[in-house]
Amino acid sequence: MSSSSHSPVVALVGNPNTGKSTLFNALTGLRQRVGNYPGVTVARKSGQCDCGEGLKVELIDLPGLYSLSAASPDEQIVIDVLAGNLAQERRPEAIVVVADATNLLRNLFIASQLAELRLPMAIVLNQADIAEKQGLKIDTELLSQRLGGIPVVMTSAWKGEGIAQVRKAIASILKQKILMTQVVWPSELKEAFGKIAEKVQVDTRKTPTASTLQRLLFDTSPNASERLDWPMSQREGVIREARDHVRRAGYNPLAAEPLIHYAHLRKILDGVVSGGLVRALRSAAVDRILLHRIAGPVIFTSIMLGLFASVFWLAKFPMEWIQLAVDALKGVVAPALVQYPMLQSLVADGVIAGVGAFLVFLPQILILFFFIGILEDSGYMARAAFIMDRLFSWCGLNGKSFVPLLSGFACAIPGLLSTRTIEDPKARLATAFAVPFMSCSARFPVYALMCAAFIGPLYGPGWESVVMVGMHLIGLLFAVPTAFVLTRFVLRIRPQPFVLELPRYQLPKPRDVLWRMWQNAAEFVSKAGTVIFAITIIIWALCYFPRSPELAEKIRSENPTLSANEVQLRAQAAGIEQSWMGRFGKTVQPIFDPCGFDWKITVGVLASFPAREVIVSTLGITYSIGQDAEADSQDLRQAMQQAKWMEGPRVGKPIFSLAAVLALMVFFALCSQCGPTIATLAQESGGWKWAAASFFYMTFLAWVMAVIVYQVVVRLS
Amino acid sequence: MTPLSQLLPGQYGKLVSLSPERAVDQRLMALGLLPGMVLKLVRRAPLGDPIAVEFGGQVVSLRMAEAESLWVDVAADCPIQKPKATP
User: Fold this and answer.
1) Does position A492 have pLDDT exceeding 90, yes or no?
2) DSSP 3-state of A423
3) Fewer CB within 10 Å: N-end or C-end of chain B?
């Protein structure tokens, strides 16, 4: 990719559901780079496209959009990239518009808007095979001629047909710089543009392009004038005046743009398209079943149960293998470093555990994105959103929030990554905020330990299941009002209308599905993975240092009868008590005292901030059972059942009373104890602001609820 | 004139007016939904909202609250374009 800085940039633009990504994959052959545009959560995809005769082009796949009206972040990015507004981005030298051959009129609207940018352009009519099946005949030569001689190419990217012609078309527009015919604006609109242009020149000393003037006149969003640094006070008067001018000519200024473009396009397409059905009948027939009042929800539920079972259950096997591999690696490395206990602990409990900490999420991410790829590419995802929207719309989310929230019950990480399928940035962020509340599988061992050790023996298995179910619902109970308040009062993002195309059903292309799955996983590893690794190392250090090397010696000399294993377990317990984490736990224990937590629980809670399931092994260490303690460990249950307060007002009473056990579970249900979640939330929301907000909000809420539960239950029992 | 949201499933209507200042209507105009266009309410979602609307060879999901600003003349039998039965 050494030539990429010299090779010309060409942008791929088009409506959603046109097969644009399939075409992009076919043109670049997976030589791609994926990332984000700086500061926004819009994905940036680029790749190298070989256009023959030694011409290599950097192709960028811009987000799918219906209009340049700058209403959404996606649309604004497309405008900024094409206008060369982004400092890090080279401005494209040409545009390839991908259009769905079966709905030319709507698909050419964006092309007609793009023509105003005066960049060389080619038009790809994709899904030609489907158009042919529908009996549509398109006279591409006539269309090309009417559009000013720009290349018009028919392709079926799915089948790989017509790709070579697209490469040729790119080469020819770069060489010959052919422009597409522009719409003819009525004279009143031209005058209105002129008025605005004059004022911009006076106020900012910049000459606005035709496209910028249109955005200023037609758009209600302030983005265009912000790009010009044109202050509100100066622009308001002249824009109102220009709009009044348009209105006097009989046009509504906010409707003039689509009216004029569509009238222009109807004339261009007259005689170009003939025959065919308006819409594929097959999709309508499938919809009659999949969107049926009764069958629809039943099928939806089955599909989603299948998806959840896969993420939750199927992923367990590879996750166990990763865990086994990590443990095996530890087993090999640790004995080799036995003479350097600090290094041994760093490598085994820090580095290897840190790598394992993010690798373990990969199976779930890969499986979930495999299913999402199939759901999206087949066209079912839009139907799923259509079925579910009513349940979510009232709290500011939308039908597309369902899959992320459902996945959250398995694990928040894939759930957060899947919020990418939500187009509306406001609903996307609110959904991402709600996902960590879902009771993920890592909370399960905590509930299991507490229920098995305390609820079951004291109240019987019936209450055990009640508590289990209750703990799984409590997150949802708080997530919904949180989303409501967030979308209603906090987020100052313009909501996008929930206008969702129900596209034609289509067979997903395996290569596209697998490639997208791989890209999402790779991005997670490179971004969130490094943060997760760093967090693990930091927490390791806090739990390890400072530690006196004579600890084991001292315990052995004080208790000469203890076995070597016992000594080591006690030394571990004393080690964590002495560490920064232990000291910190003891210092802040008064904060957790109203929840009924002693210092050992407090240390456990603090140590499990990077990963909540760590509480079990931390309690194992502090109760001298050893760090390999698991939720079903009898020794740990016994040690906890016997634990008593050593000092303070509750001296002699059991630490794990019903109140403390319930408080601890509620705390774990609500608290943001997952480094990977925070790192992924930061990655997906485009910065640390929302990640930090989520962390403090959830942790504070968990504390408040734990205090309430503890105090209420103590008084009742 | 009736709001689009009041059409029955399967009913056709001709768009009389919309509210261009609303973001929803702007999106719909970009999709080609302009006054004079014939559209069909294909179905309601199982929970009654949103609705699926067909116009210009595409089917689009719209929330009821968002469809209220769209006024149509109900057409008893005004198919968008009678599809020929395929063998």
Assistant:
1) no
2) coil
3) C
Reported as a pLDDT band with limits 50, 70 and 90, residue A354 is confident
Predicted pLDDT at A241? 94
B59 vs A252: CB contact, 8 Å cut-off?
A: no
pLDDT band for A653, please (50, 70, 90 cuts): confident
Tokens of A213: 């003037």
Q: Is the distance from CB of A241 to CB of A191 less than 8 angstroms?
A: no
Q: Are residues B21 and A500, on separate chains, in Cβ contact within 8 Å?
A: no
β-strand pairing of A273-274 with B12-17: unpaired
Architecture of the CATH domain A2-176: 3-Layer(aba) Sandwich (3.40)
Q: Write down the domain spans for chain A.
A: 2-176, 187-250
Residue of B nearest to A297 (CA): B46
Measure the CA–CA gap between A414 and A61, rounded to whole angstroms.
24
Min Cα distance B74 → chain A (Å) is 21
SS3 state at A255: coil
First-last CA distance in chain B = 38
Contact between B32 and A262 using a beta-carbon 8 Å cutoff? yes
| Record: contact B21-A254, CB cut-off 8 A | yes
CATH of domain B2-75: 2.30.30.90
Model confidence at B78, in pLDDT bands (50, 70, 90)? Answer: low
**Best CA proximity match to A613, nearest among A627, A623, A592:** A627
**What is the H or E stretch that residue A250 is in?**
none
**What is the least distance, in Å, from the CA of A287 to any CA of chain B?**
10
The 10s digit of each residue's pLDDT in A30-72 is 788 887 787 677 888 999 999 988 899 999 999 999 999 877 8
Chain B hits for A218, CB-CB cut-off 8 Å, are none
Is any Cβ of chain B less than 8 angstroms from the Cβ of A281?
Answer: yes
In A306-365, the residues whose Cβ lies within 8 Å of chain B are none
